[in-house]
Amino acid sequence: MRGLxxxxxxxxxxxGGFATFGGIAAEPASGVPDPSKxxxxxxxxxxxxxxxxxxxxxxxxxxxxxxxxxxxxxxxRGVRQACPAPPQSLLxxxxxxxxxxxxxxxxxxxxxxxxKDPVAMFEAGLAFFNGKFGQEAVQEGYDLISKAADLGDPExxxxxxxxxxxxxxxxxxxxxxxxxxIEAAARAGxxxxxxxxxxxxxxxxxxxxxxxxxxxxxxxxxxxxxFYATFMAWDMxxxxxxxxxxxxxxxxLARRVAQDGQVYGAVMATSALLQGPEPAKHEDEILYWMxxxxxxxxxxxxxxxxxxxxxxxxILTRPSAAPNYQPRAFRACPMKxxxxxxxxxxxxxxxxxxxxxxDCDG
Length: 362
Description:
mainly alpha, 2 domains, two-stranded antiparallel ribbon
């Protein structure tokens, strides 16, 4: 029976064509989100100031608090002081916004030129590089991103590293040149940089493969809520690559993924239980997670999981048994908050997740 169960675990890993990530450009499996999804929050006083003008042009007036903050931003610009932290209501809307208005660019450019504000340099550079103010400014945009990276801005370090790694600057991918930039951003707390540093180390794209370093980067990104980093940490734990095998921790990570709304977490949870030392002891949970994937997954996932579900039922239970399968009760894992504080603006971006890395839920 043990051999049959391990064979089923291997079948689960092949669902959707998703085996080991092993690199940067993997295709997602059925039910798995886009691997290129950004998790790092990019909301600051500069792109927030521009967003108010963009919203006003669409007929949305700022709140009184936001209008007062905009006045304080302009005052800080005039007396060459650091820009004030935006209201949370504005930050909540600003994530990922790229400067696009003349008024916003005027303010951002002043902070960049007069105060050598690296965040302003990056935001101006990103807007120029993305062609928001004409294609002729693209090179100027990259130059500003580079200057912000030289000043240590995590977003600029990561962006410059990604552009170099993807060959968007010299028409040739250069991972050895990109890696120090990405790792510097990761050390500064940039969650997407942590994941990419892990992927580069795992795939050996900048030289020798380093699974141990890869696992550590994936672990740090997973603690901050990065789904793909969580998957990679789970995968390495089940294979004992870069770390010791730990099916209990792998199962906790899989449950976290499922509880966060990612259906593929049910596949991960099933596989971890099947590979563990006593799979028959947890037959209700195995069938529960299989049923969960079939119920909540898309058509492709359901079609691939259904025959494995039938096989598992035949191996693990009596044919006549038809209980309402439920996972066992668990103790609650503690919550862990991890923050990144911008070293120039003082804006703090935090993520709070359950600390599945501690010995909980056992």
